[in-house]
Every structure is written in C-alpha cells, then in structure tokens.
C-alpha cells in the first residue's frame, strides 16, 4: 500500500467525537499527501479502517478511506434507526456526505478506499442473492466487481492511485472442500483473479497496493499456517518476505520499500524490507525497549513510523525512524529540531506524509495527534482539541449580536423619544456590559450620539452615529477584539390611536482581531488573524402606548421583528505552529420580540422604568465555518446550535435635571443573542 494514496491501508482506526459544532470533523492532511482523521486506535494489519462515531440527529457513520489530496472521505453511515449501512462519499469542498447507492436488490453498502483524486471509490455491498460482493463507484455509478469462481463473498480493500487496479479478498468458490480466503485483484478490464497463496490451499489476504499499482502487499499462511508478510508482482507473483512470522503494514509509492513487523519469541519487532537488499531488516527499539511495530512509510521509503515500547518508563510511544537518526520518539524528533514539547503523550504513529515531515497517530489518551516540522509551523497537537479551537473562533454572528443589541437595547425605547412637530432633541447613550456566549466571554461597550426631530402628523425621525468595542476571551484559548462604527436611522409613525410603528435600519463596518489559542506540545500556542466585518439590519416595531395602568404603572406592550445580516471576510492567520486560513462567512438572524414596558412616576421629575421581554430567533444554527489548516488540510464545520428562545428583564430610572433627562437601567438576559448583563445610561435634551 502506498501511505500517500490510500488511508484505508494504513491500518488505522479513527473515531471523531461530536464537537460543539454538532458535526464530525475530518482533518485531512493534504498539503504533503498526509492522511488523517479523527482519533486513532489500534489496527489489525494493513487493511484497517478509520472510524467516525458521530451522533448527528441519531445517525452513525464510519469512514474507511481518504483521497490523496485530503479532500474526500469514504465510508458507511446509518441514516435512520434500524437501517442498514450505506456507503458515503464526503467532500471537504462543501458537498458534504453523499449516499453512493447500492446494488439492485441489495440493502447494504460500505465504501472502503478511494483513489488519489477521489473519483474512484471501492468497497462492499450485498447483492440480490444476499451475499457480499466487491464493488466500485465511478462517477457515482456502482458496479459489481463479482466473486472468484462465483464464490460466496468478495471484498475490495484498496485501489491504486489512478483507480485502474483494485485489490481485496474473497473465498475461492471451491465447494468440494473447505473454501479458502484468497487475495484478489481486479484490473481495469473487469477481470478478477486470485493472487494465489504461499502454499497450496493456504489463506491469503491483500491488504494494500502501491500508488503505481504494481506491488500488492498482504499476509498469507505458510505450510505451518503461520502468517508471513508477502509482496506480489506480475513477474514474481506472491513471495514471502522472510522465514519468520510477520505481517506487512505499509508500502511506499513504487513498492520498493515495505514495512511491518516480525514476531520473535512472541514479541513484535519493526522491520523495513527493501527490494535492493531483499531482507527484512529490524530497525530497532526505543531506548532499548522490548518491542516495536512499523505502521507506515513515506513515498521514497526513507522515513518509517509506528509504535514501540520506550525503554525509559516502559511506556509505548509513537516513533519516527530514518537511517541517519535511528528510531526516536515523535516528541524527541520535534525537540531535536527546535520545537518546544513540554510532555510526552504519543502512543502510535499511523501515517506519514510523502516527504516524511508530517506524522499522524494516536495519543495515550486515545485521541488523534498531528505532528509536523515545516515552514508553515512546527509542533504537535491533539486533533480534537485543535478542532475545537477552529470551531470556537469568532464568526460573523459577532456582528449580528451587536446589531440586535443596538436596535433593541440602546435604541429600544421609541416611546421615550417621541417629539412634537418641530421639536428637536439630541442625546448621548452608552451600553457597557458583560457577555457570556456559547464559545467566549468578556466585556463590551458601545456609545453613540443622536439627533431627533418631530414631523408633521405625529411622526418622529431619529439618526444615530456610534461606535462599538468588545474584548472576549475564547473558551478554547486566546481572545478576540471587535471594534467598529455604526449608523442607525429610524422613524416612528402613528398608526391608530396610541399605536405607533417604528421602522429602523442599521449599518456597521468594523474590524475583528483574533488570537486563537491551542495546545501545542503541552504549551499554549497562538495564531493571529485580522479581518473586516460588516453588518446590516432592519427593524419593524409596534408599540401600544400606555395601553393600561396598574398600581400607578403605565404599561406599553410592544412587538418587534429584527432581521440582520453580516459578513466576515476571509483571512489568513500568522504565527503559531498550526495557523489556518478561514473562508469568508455570511450569517443572518431573524428575531421576534414581544414585551412590556412600564413607567411609574415617583415625583414630577423622577420616573421608574421597567421592561420584561421574550425573544425568539427563527434560525436554529449559525453559519458554517470552513477553511484550511495551512500545509495540512481543509476543514468544514456545521454551524453551532443557537439558543432560539431567551428572556430579558430591565429595571432603571430617569431624572429630569439641568434642562435635560438623565437615565440609567440594568438589563439581564438568559442565554441568547443579547448580552448577559449590561448597564445602559444616557443624557437627552429637547429643544
């Protein structure tokens, strides 16, 4: 197998937990031909699989292979409870998870591997006779690859880079005696052939194929029914790599280097076989440990990765081997190249990039890691934790929240600002508070200056100019600063009796500066980005002024509908070990509010103010987040779930003094689009 072209042949079990974005993340390292996704587990030889266990509205999915460019995942998924698995193709190019289809009369399908550019997918499906058959999907069309001698079963496990050669295994169709599992190969003309075995009647299984499609590796029984690693070519057919129990795990692009393990006195030892020497050379252990196992090799065969017992502490660690350095832990490899790694936590290395500078695997805590040494950044991260930092970074919804706060907070009292025809007013207003959102928390402030004039017919027109500033700590590490200016015109018109309609608009350009924090080798690291953000909003509000009086309180019920849109420009981070490029984001919100304003006069110049409000947002999730981890992979997250319903309460007072009116109120909300708590203050003069 070519570790550069088919992840299903790395023998990696990967599982991705549901993040707060309510989606499974596939981190596909493509920049150097690296394959990785989710959380790595132990594997049963080369033909392992990637496993995504996700609870997406009750669905279950398993990913089994990734394309060389890192943009396509294939596997199986259960869409509904009780339904058989269906093969899927997932693309990071925003097409999402697509059902590849089943054979006529069948109910089940599973995709196992994909070629280099993601256009050819192979796997297994049940046919109308109820048995399993190897299948291939080309351009979305499924084709039954058939079974050897009309046997009971066949399975496809790998495909060459160009999609022309497919390998797998199945029974030999011999029903006069016990059927045997045979390594199989399908070529472009649809021909199926057995690759034979090392001994007559023995078991064999193809686990992988080189990128050029010329070398197939696997394992087969010898005359003592003991596993032997094999290498198969057209010329030499199936040849054992040695005389000791062994298994092949990885093969480089042209098939000249194969890696795996041999078993000596029931202990595994990593080997590297080369066509030049014809020998399975043991490549050692970590610090005189007792065992090691090679899992993958890079394109030219010079870098081998796997797992080994560390003689210091007797703990298993992921290793990287070259002829120059020998076997060293992944952590020590990074340290020797100037990286800061505060703690050792790797367990198994399962994949390596074409040039050997990027390694993926699992940690001792059963989480995936990516380690790299490159000009784009250096270090080692846990995939799931790092993914959380990508999902938690600020989005276009930041601007939506400001729009809602300004239109319904600072400018949310039109009945307190009515003017007679020809009457004018000026005011200054500020809101200062704290916001504890889904992924960040911190302080914010806004201030504005406004002018109003009374028009004929009882209408009042107002125009406001202001600025906003917010400094929020990101839950996963780091912070962001948002600042900008805004303009907000509105007009209040009498409708009938004491019922008024207020129509308002809002526009705000601004700047967002992000310091995204994440754990890099046990040390907090930061990547910084800066981008422009814009928001637009419109509001329609109805007030029934002084509709009722209860215990001296004049009560004004109201309802409003606010629609806001925002755009966050694409930006590229700098600094840190794993900076990312984020795509442009556009988001929107539509919020319906219903509430009750109360005014109680304590004295001729002192009035108490109160408000109770319920709000409902129609959208149930924010916009998706997508981009590229520089030098590694694309990523895409569904939007985060929103708090669609929340409550708001406010209590304050206004005082007529020095020719104007001063006001102050405290507002609190439950979790939602509005800030958690804020203090509104203002000064208004009419003339």
Q: How large is the share of residues in beta strands?
A: over 45%
Give the overall form.
elongated
The total strand number stands at 47
Instruction: Report strand order across the widest sheet.
Output: 31-32-33-34-35-36-38-41-42-45-46-47
Poorly predicted regions: 1-59
Helix content: under 10%
Average pLDDT, to the nearest integer?
Answer: 83
- How many individual helices? 3
Largest sheet: 12 strands, antiparallel, barrel
Spatial extent as radius of gyration: 32 Å
Structural class: mainly beta
Distance between the termini: 83 Å
Report on the architecture of this protein.
By secondary structure, the protein is mainly β. Helix content is 4%, strand content 55%. It contains three helices and 47 strands. The chain is elongated. It starts with 12 loop residues before the first strand and ends with a strand.
List keywords for this structure.
687 residues; mainly beta; 12-stranded antiparallel barrel; 3 helices
Topology:
Blueprint: E1 13-14, E2 40-41, E3 60-66, E4 72-78, E5 86-91, E6 96-99, E7 109-114, E8 120-126, E9 132-138, E10 141-146, E11 154-159, E12 166-171, E13 181-186, E14 192-194, E15 204-209, E16 216-221, E17 227-233, E18 237-240, E19 246-251, E20 257-264, E21 267-274, E22 280-282, E23 292-297, E24 304-310, E25 315-322, E26 326-329, H1 330-335, E27 346-352, E28 358-363, E29 368-374, E30 377-382, H2 383-392, H3 397-410, E31 424-436, E32 440-454, E33 460-474, E34 478-496, E35 499-520, E36 523-544, E37 548-550, E38 553-568, E39 571-572, E40 580-582, E41 585-603, E42 606-617, E43 625-629, E44 633-637, E45 645-657, E46 660-669, E47 677-686
Antiparallel strand pairs: 1-2, 3-4, 4-5, 5-6, 7-8, 8-9, 9-10, 11-12, 12-13, 13-14, 15-16, 16-17, 17-18, 19-20, 20-21, 21-22, 23-24, 24-25, 25-26, 27-28, 28-29, 29-30, 31-32, 31-47, 32-33, 33-34, 34-35, 35-36, 36-38, 37-38, 38-41, 39-40, 40-43, 41-42, 42-45, 43-44, 45-46, 46-47
């Amino acid at each position: 197998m070519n570790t550069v072209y088919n992840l299903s042949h790395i023998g990696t079990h990967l599982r991705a937990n549901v993040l707060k974005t309510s989606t499974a993340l596939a981190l596909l390292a493509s920049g150097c031909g690296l394959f990785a996704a989710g959380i790595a587990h132990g594997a049963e030889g080369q033909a392992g699989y990637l496993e995504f266990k996700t609870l997406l509205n009750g669905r279950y999915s398993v990913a089994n292979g990734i394309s060389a460019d890192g943009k396509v995942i294939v596997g199986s998924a259960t869409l509904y409870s009780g339904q058989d698995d269906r093969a899927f193709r997932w693309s990071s190019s925003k097409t999402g998870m697509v059902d590849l289809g089943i054979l006529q009369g069948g109910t089940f399908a599973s995709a196992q591997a994909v070629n280099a550019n993601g256009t050819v997918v192979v796997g297994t499906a049940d046919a109308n006779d109820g048995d399993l058959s190897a299948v291939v999907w080309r351009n979305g069309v499924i084709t039954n690859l058939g079974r050897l001698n009309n046997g009971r079963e066949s399975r496809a496990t790998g495909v060459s880079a160009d999609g022309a050669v497919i390998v797998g295994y199945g029974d030999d169709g011999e029903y006069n005696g016990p059927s045997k599992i045979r390594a199989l190969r399908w070529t472009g003309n649809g021909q199926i052939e057995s690759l034979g075995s090392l001994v007559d009647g023995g078991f064999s299984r193809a686990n992988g194929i080189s990128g050029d499609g010329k070398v197939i590796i696997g394992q087969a029984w010898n005359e003592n029914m003991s596993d032997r690693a094999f290498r198969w070519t057209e010329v030499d057919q199936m040849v054992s790599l040695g005389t000791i129990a062994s298994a092949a795990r990885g093969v480089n692009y042209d098939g000249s280097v194969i890696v795996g393990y041999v078993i000596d006195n029931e202990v595994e030892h990593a080997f590297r076989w080369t066509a030049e020497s014809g020998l399975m050379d043991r490549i050692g252990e970590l610090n005189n440990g007792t065992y090691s196992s090679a899992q993958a090799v890079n394109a030219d065969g010079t870098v081998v990765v796997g797992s080994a017992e560390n003689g210091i502490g007797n703990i298993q660690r992921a290793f990287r081997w070259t002829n120059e350095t020998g076997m060293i832990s992944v952590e020590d490899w990074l340290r020797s190249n100037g990286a800061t790694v505060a703690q050792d936590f790797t367990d198994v290395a399962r994949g390596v990039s074409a040039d050997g500078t990027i390694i993926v695997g699992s940690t001792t805590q059963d989480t995936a890691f990516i380690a790299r040494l490159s000009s784009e950044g250096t270090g080692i991260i846990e995939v799931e934790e790092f993914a959380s930092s990508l999902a938690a970074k600020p989005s276009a919804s930041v601007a939506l929240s400001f729009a809602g706060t300004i239109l319904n907070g600072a400018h949310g009292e039109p009945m307190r600002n009515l003017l007679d025809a020809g009457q004018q007013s000026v005011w200054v207003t500020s809101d200062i508070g704290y916001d504890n959102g889904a992924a960040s928390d911190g302080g914010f402030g806004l201030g504005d200056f406004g002018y109003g004039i009374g028009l004929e017919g009882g209408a009042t027109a107002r125009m406001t100019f202001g600025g906003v500033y917010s400094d929020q700590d990101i839950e996963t590490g780091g912070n962001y600063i948002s600042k900008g200016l805004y303009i907000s015109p509105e007009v209040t018109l009498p409708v009938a009796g004491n019922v008024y309609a207020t129509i308002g608009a809002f526009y705000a350009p601004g700047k967002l500066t992000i310091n995204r924090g994440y754990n890099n080798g046990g040390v907090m690291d930061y990547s910084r980005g800066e981008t422009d953000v814009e928001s637009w909003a419109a509001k329609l509000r109805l007030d029934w002024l002084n509709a009722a009086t209860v215990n001296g309180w004049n009560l004004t019920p109201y309802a409003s509908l606010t629609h806001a849109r925002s755009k966050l420009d694409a930006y590229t981070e700098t600094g840190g070990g794993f900076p990312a490029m984020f795509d442009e984001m556009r988001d929107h919100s539509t919020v319906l509010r219903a509430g009750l304003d109360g005014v109680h006069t304590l004295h001729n110049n002192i009035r108490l103010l109160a408000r109770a409000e319920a709000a409902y947002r129609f959208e149930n999730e924010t916009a998706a987040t997508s981009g590229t981890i520089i030098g590694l992979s694309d990523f895409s997250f569904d939007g985060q779930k929103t708090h669609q319903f929340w409550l708001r309460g406010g209590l304050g007072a206004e005082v007529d003094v020095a020719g104007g009116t001063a006001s102050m109120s405290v507002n609190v909300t439950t979790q939602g689009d509005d800030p958690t708590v804020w203090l509104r203050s203002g000064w208004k003069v009419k003339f």
